[in-house]
Amino acid sequence: MRGRAMNGDGRRILITSDAVGGVWNYSIMLARGLASAGDRVTLVTIGPKPSPSRLEDIGDLCPDVDLIITDTALEWMDPDGEDAKRAGELLLHIADQVRPDVIHLNSYREASLPWPAPVVVAAHSCVLSWWQACRSGLPDEARWLRYAEAVCAGLRAADVWVAPTEAFRQTISRLYRPATNGRVIHNGVDAVASGALQKGNIVLASGRLWDEAKNIAAVVAAAEHLPSPIQVAGALAEPGAAPKALPPVVDWLGELSRRDLLERMGRSAIYVAPARYEPFGLGVLEAATAGCALVLSDIPTLRELWEDAAEFVHPDDVNRLAHMLVTLCRDEARRRRLQRAAAQRAAFYSIERMLACYRDLYSGMLAPSRAAAEEVLA
Tens digits of per-residue pLDDT, 106-150? Predict the structure, then answer.
């Protein structure tokens, strides 16, 4: 086991993240929570630099969190690994300066680097499972085969890997056959004040418009039948691409800071997520915490998390989706029951629970090196 022994808390933890999707909010909440518990955290971004709205999210990071923004390529944006050598050298240089006790990676490829400390890989998503859910089958292009090889190598190299749901843990195990079984640590979010007393009859969705996995097209199709407005928050184009013309039937909010999105959730009655692919769904959890009734796609990960606390619709059944949304807009009693059920379930997926699980995991990863050091001293 790599790493040096630690006495008690005050560990140095290096966390990588990207600013493209939900991993950003997850990483910030994790970093802030670890720092508040006494750890020193270095948060390193990989991929496109954070947008202005993303940078707003880090304004209240604790003093014990250092942010380093790099321009290295995300593995799924660089499947041929053209930037892998440069990225690896930069990350190892950062590690040499920080001298972390634990490396927490929110990607796979980088786990194969010769890190100076034990490594945990958090499996949030991957191209192969995305492809199966959104396009059926698996990609057969050479670049995606190389990507899959890098993911396999990273999972083998990691000391531990985790997934946010049991369903996704099984998916990663089936696709890449890592040497270890992996562990499940549910994501958690900060509690937000419920806006139940101020809620309007508004339906909200969030997600990258350009990502097939989010299935925002189904929201647009259903919007034509609704008596209430549907608002959609999220990036309107891929990084570096120009936005396309948008259907006027939906109120497009664009990419919002987390604070602004949570405010919208607090004012919304219903949150809809007809995703084809969602290994966890941090936006769903935040909406439930804000007291929204949930209408979700009927896929294994969301069923696992929200059974009996949401309405489920097949992601391809737009008519059923529209019918469910219309019903909830008109049936206040049913809507309020769902709001209460979602909020109660969301309380289980707390940031405190997530932090406790990760801190226990880090302690277990460091235990062998601590024991070895004590044996030498004895």
Answer: 999 999 999 999 999 999 999 999 999 999 999 999 999 999 999
Please compute Rg for the chain using Cα positions.
Answer: 21
CA–CA separation, 228 and 94 (whole Å): 50
Q: How many domains does the chain have?
A: 2
**The model's pTM:** 0.90
3-class DSSP state of 14:
strand
Q: What is the pLDDT of residues 201-221, one digit of tens each?
A: 899 999 988 899 999 999 999
Bridge partners (DSSP) of residue 312 are: 296
Could you tell me the residue range of the domain that residue 371 belongs to? 12-188+351-377
Query: Which CA distances in Å does 355 have to 7, 57, 190?
Result: 19, 19, 11
For residues 43 and 126, membership in a common domain is answered with yes
Tally of CB atoms within 10 A around 277: 21
Q: What is the DSSP letter of 212?
A: G
Answer positive or negative: Cα dihedral of 251, 289, 213, 203. negative
**Separation of alpha carbons 5 and 375, rounded Å:** 11
